[in-house]
Design brief:
Largest interface: A-B, 19 and 21 residues
Structural class of chain B: alpha/beta
Helix content of chain A: 25-40%
Distance between the termini of chain A: 35 Å
CATH superfamily of chain B: Mannitol-specific EII, Chain A
Largest sheet of chain B: 5 strands, mixed
Number of helices of chain A: 3
Helix content of chain B: 40-55%
Number of helices of chain B: 6
Number of domains of chain A: 1
Radius of gyration of chain A: 12 Å
CATH class of chain B: Alpha Beta
CATH architecture of chain A: 2-Layer Sandwich
Strand content of chain B: 15-25%
Radius of gyration of chain B: 14 Å
Number of strands of chain B: 5
Strand order of the largest sheet of chain A: 1-4-2-3
Strand content of chain A: 15-25%
Oligomer: heterodimer
């Protein structure tokens, strides 16, 4: 693992889970960063900048995801993704 | 979950007559009504619900595919259908390119986890370059059926 790799675990907290609009919000945030970012549900690890990939995670409310970022802006990317997923909860009601 | 378990093949439209987004959505929901997958007297209301959802955020995810969908009490069982248009339709896609293959999904409102599983299934197929290419070239219901079952076995 290189020095620029960071990893966090987040929990999906909104009632409807990671459906298409939340997935798009993840892609939007991830795409602002140069780091390579992957999201894993334990079985599959996907590119956080691809809408098709992120929707494939089918993460339901309560599920935990591991997000890994590799690059100079990894730390800031992960902090913004955690904010989106756990604090803003994609602007959706909690489950 | 496999794609052939949720697609209503009687409602697949290999050559869409419509030329715009709302027309395509109406055409596909009507096809589901005719096939008996959804109640005929709910077709207009369901189509409007899909259009309203689509207008909030486009499901044209690029690479020539769109996945209009809605979670609604108007359906009791999850169901999907496919429409193809070789001329391309403007779905306000993320990559600003025309859409050639439309996969419409209707999910019951009370089962969000089932909806997520269906989306996972749909994207497992759609993310494959070959699947998208062959789907775009398909012009009969039979070829779409065969394509989906072929890719299910992979």
């Amino acid at each position: 693992m290189s020095a620029d790799v960071r990893e966090i675990e987040v929990e999906i907290k909104n009632e409807y889970g990671l459906h298409m609009r939340p997935a798009m919000q993840i892609v939007d945030v991830a795409s602002r960063f140069a780091s390579e970012i992957t999201v894993s549900n334990g079985e599959t690890a996907v590119d956080a900048k691809s809408i098709m990939h992120v929707t494939m995670l089918a993460a339901t409310c309560g599920m935990k995801l591991t997000i890994t970022a590799d690059g100079g802006d990894a730390e800031e990317a992960l902090s913004q993704l955690r904010e989106l997923i756990e604090v803003k909860m994609f602007d959706e009601p909690a489950g | 979950m496999k794609l052939e378990d949720i697609i209503c093949f009687d409602a697949v439209v290999p050559k869409l007559a419509s030329v715009d987004r709302d027309g395509v959505i109406n055409e596909l929901v009507s096809a589901l009504g005719k096939s008996g997958s959804i109640r005929k007297n709910k077709v207009a209301e369901i189509a409007q619900a899909v259009i309203t959802r689509e207008s909030e955020a486009s499901t044209g995810i690029g690479k020539g595919v769109a996945v209009p969908h809605v979670k609604t009490d108007l359906v009791k069982k999850i169901v999907a259908t496919i429409g193809c248009c070789s001329a391309g339709i403007d779905f306000s896609s993320l990559d600003k390119q025309p859409t050639y293959s439309v996969l419409l999904l209707l999910s019951p409102a009370n089962d969000p986890d089932c909806h997520l599983q269906a989306m996972e299934t749909i994207f497992k197929y759609l993310q494959k370059d070959d699947f998208r290419k062959f789907l775009r070239q398909s012009d009969t219901s039979e070829s779409i059926h065969d394509l989906i079952t072929d890719f299910s076995d992979e």
